[in-house]
Design a protein that fits this description.
heterodimer; A: 265 residues; 10 helices; B: 264 residues; mainly alpha; 0% strand; transmembrane helix (chain B)
Amino acid sequence: MVKPIITVEHLFAQYGDTHVLKDVNLEVNPGEILVVMGGSGSGKSTLLNHMLGLKTPTSGTIMIDGVNIFTAKNKQLRNLRKKMGVAFQGGALLSSLTVADNVRLPLEHNTSLDTQTIDIMVRMKLELMNMAGTGHLMPSELSGGMLKRAGLARAVIMDPKLLFFDEPSAGLDPTTAVELDELILTLRDAMNMTIVVVTHELESVFKIADRVVVLFAGEVVANGTVDEIRNSPDERIQNMINRQPNTQRDDGEVYLNRLLNKDKN
Amino acid sequence: MNALFNSVSNLGAATRKNIDSIGLATLFLLRIVSSLFTGLVSFKQVIKQIYFIGNRSLIVIIVAALFTGMVVALQFYDTLVRFGSVDLLGSAVALSLIKELGPVMTALMVIARVGSATCSEIGIMRNEQQFDALDCMAINSYRYVMLPRLLAALFCVPMLTAVFDLVGIGGGYIVGVHIQGESPGAYIQGVMDTISFKDVLVGQIKSLVFGLFIMWIPLYYGFYLHLNQKNMGAEGVSNGTTQAVVMSAIIMLFSDYIVSSLAL
């Protein structure tokens, strides 16, 4: 049996009085693409932030490559992060640096490679992302798709074994979205990366996922292969797949209390 | 009775919140300073910030210093002439500039130009997840982003203050000698005879302390912008910047009094 590279166990998270994640359990196996899918406000970005160690949960654990990221020492966490790449939704490129300087940042800080080698690696990764010749541009000069691809180039510059990608195709035109999906598949196949993608774009989910975890109101409501998700009898999942609005309605008393401002939630 | 309880409760909550903020800001500063010992500081980043804080503030400082020196000389001349002590003009202008006006005016100019820009830049970086990205790249944000700015401010503010003092004394010379007709020798002699090493040292210590507050407070406000969800977005950055500038100015003036009272 393959040992999972990521294990999330009984993860609870809340902002103030709002429970965002409720007993989330999942595993990610080496070399697979796991897609975390869900509507807006379902908790998928919160889950990703917890996996990255950017947020502390109310309770629960996340083990990545054998390290509990919530109790790990700073040095342990830094070493773990050197094996991880993260592509943020908006790219999160440092606005004061050029694209090439952004991409070279992890290599400059975490390796002792000489400048010439780093330059070559940066050009290779930009080439891989179909961004050759854009190294001199500032992030403010890039389109949404280019920002994502530059962010992805930075995320994979250290050839990480684990890649996290937040909303790869959100806000992109269909052609660019498909290109990014292809790129994710290439990274998995050519570099044997384990990839966790957070998205609500169904086309992407069905194209790239080996396994899908569906979040609904902070709970995992399904965890399976693409076919299993497609054929799920759960009405909420079918609504999501068939792009139907959520038909679940509060009962009359809850609705009335909310109107009268008696319900603080 | 309920209103009284509410008032006391609100006061308690506000006090606790302020104490929390002071604690967090102190921890933030300690993290920046301790990052100095965790690896090499990016020399390139420090130079970039020195250029931004120092070089690009130079013109503003020179213009402000010139007019400040001129108006100080004008006011002192008007007072001194009543007592027949116009010969003291050089001493009065130099002392007031070096001990007080130079450091304070320079600090205010730097707060207006650099403090506001720094807070908004750091706030936008926070909003755009750039600090999250640095964390995920195993890059220490304190060492990479904060420390170069703090070191540059500690280096530049005393330098700019020295420039302010010199240009201000020059402005006083223009008004005292060329406009009011005082003897150039008396003005320069007054400056040379009155200013002691201690006066210059106190002025420079003040500017060093101001440099710390000028950078620390905007960095803190920008970096922790996300702690209050209402502060996110463009309006949040704008509010944070306003608060940072006001707070920097107030704390700078308060620390001015403390350093002055210790030095006298």
